[in-house]
Amino acid sequence: MSKEIFDTVLQVETQSNEIHNQIGQLKYLIVKLLEENNKLKIENDNLKKHYDINLMDLDRNEEKSEKKIEIEKPKLAYNNLTNLYNEGFHICSDQFGRPRSDDCLFCTPFLNKFTKSS
Fold first, then answer.
1. Which of 93, 97, 115 is nearest to 106 (CA)?
2. How far is Cα 45 from Cα 91, in angstroms, rounded to an integer?
3. 89 dihedral zone (left: phi>0; alpha: psi -120 to 50; beta)
4. How far is Cα 109 from Cα 111, in angstroms, rounded to an integer?
């Protein structure tokens, strides 16, 4: 009987050692997971900051684009009118779009008005 008790105690001791080893492995995994979680939190925060900065840059670029478009609209209109005039069409309100043979007394001041204002 004492051998049976001794064998049982040995089995319990072996199982206890195995459980202790498993707990040690679990602790190690928990530490690794916590470290990875902290790294991911830091990376996430950095990405959020980077994303916010990019959004602000995008907003600024959109504002600049809108201002640039507002500035370029009159230039584009002037260029279109100049092209029409150079192709031989009237740009004055009386004859707009009709073919012209010579310089028009109304078109020329109209072009000069755009040149002075831009």
1. 93
2. 59
3. beta
4. 5
Whole-angstrom distance, CA of residue 48 vs CA of residue 8: 59
* Domain residue spans of the chain: 2-117
Please report, for residues 12, 60, 85, 102, the alpha-carbon distance to residue 114 in angstroms, rounded to integers and kept in the order given. 100, 30, 13, 20
If you ran DSSP here, which 8-state letter would residue 99 be given? B
Cα distance between residue 79 and residue 41, in whole Å: 55
Report mean pLDDT in 10-residue bins for the chain, 118 residues.
Answer: 88 95 96 92 82 70 63 72 85 84 82 62
Tokens coding 38: 């902290």
pTM of the model: 0.42
Q: Tell me how far apart the alpha carbons of residues 74 and 89 are, in angstroms, rounded to a whole number.
A: 20
